[in-house]
Amino acid sequence: MMLPLQSNTPSSLKRIPRSIRWVYSVVCAAILAATLSALPMAAKAQSPDPLPSWNDGQSKRDIIAFVEAVTTVGSPDFVPVDQRVATFDNDGTLWVEQPVYTQGFFAVDRLKEMAAQNPPWASTKPYKTIVSSGLKGLSGIDEAGLAQIIGVTHSGMTPPEFSAIVDKWLASARHPRFDRPFTELTYKPMLEVLAYFRANGFKTYIVTGGGVDFVRAFAEKAYGIPPEQVIGSRIKLTFQMQDSQPELFRQDKIDFIDDGPGKPIGIEQGIGRRPIAAFGNSDGDLQMLQWTVEAGKRRLGVVVHHTDAEREYAYDRNSKVGHLDVALDAAKLDSWTVVDMKADWKTIFPWEK
Questions:
Q1: For 323-350, how does the pLDDT look when each residue is reduced to its tens digit (9 = 90+)?
Q2: What is the number of domains present in the chain?
Q3: Do residues 336 and 293 touch, judged by C-beta distance below 8 A?
Q4: Range of the domain at 25
Q5: Could you give the CA distance from residue 240 to residue 131 in angstroms, rounded to a whole number?
Q6: Is the CB of residue 317 less than 8 Å from the CB of residue 325?
Q7: CA distance 86 to 95
Q8: pTM for the complete prediction?
Q9: Other CB atoms closer than 10 Å to residue 236's CB: what's the count?
Q10: Which Pfam families match (predicted)?
Q11: Residue 188 and residue 352: Cα distance in Å, rounded?
């Protein structure tokens, strides 16, 4: 469409023949159109780095390439928004899990507090081991004993009452090495991944072997993940009427273990949709990663490998906590992304400079 010369056309141009002035108008319009069409490309080229705490390595490229592929309309790997589900393990994937899981610290502190009202525990296994040795005593307790400790420290109350107890503990408890609240020991690079995925239409879920109500107490504040998007191990609940009010009460029996092969089951029961991306750090996440990645089409499986003893911890095959052996081998065989914390992360914690 020809743009007419406006009344404010320079007088010098008015002396130019009309045919030439017409060409001038067309050229100006073409330049304007070309400039406007180039703006989105320039804006995209100057867009901020979505993962600024990551070094420019293969892990970062894998994550960004995956998100761009599944969110670009017309891409052969495009996934509709309602199918964009990403699952994240918690301990060792989103925050520190050494020297023991955070919930282990909580259970020990709560047992010692409760022991004052239960004198027989001082001579009764497995409680006496914790009463006398504290956190060190956990290493000498078998699975049955641990279940017993979890039972007495996590039951006999309503879910809101339990959440309040966890909140109070988190407000005062500090990690023995870093001397900081546990909620300050989240991984900054992973917080960026969560935000990046959500900005691109993903629903982000925590799928943890830890207690679901324990993690729900802080997940929204720490990660921006609401309680209904947390899947974890559960203890049994019962419904009761108390003072004419309906209540749920936590029992001292395990209902479901959301670890290892339990994670795909928990995902199916809790989400009802297969993830297209999964992040873990241990053999307890193996089946979740397999369930996600080996479903055909383009999928993303990420293993966070703890390799930085100076800034955090270095452990894998020989560690009792966060044991990473079979999943590390599977990652190499199946071309999952393995994040080398020491090499891939510029910073680890939000408070680092």
A1: 999 999 999 999 999 999 999 999 999 9
A2: 2
A3: yes
A4: 1-34
A5: 33
A6: yes
A7: 17
A8: 0.87
A9: 14
A10: HAD (PF12710)
A11: 9
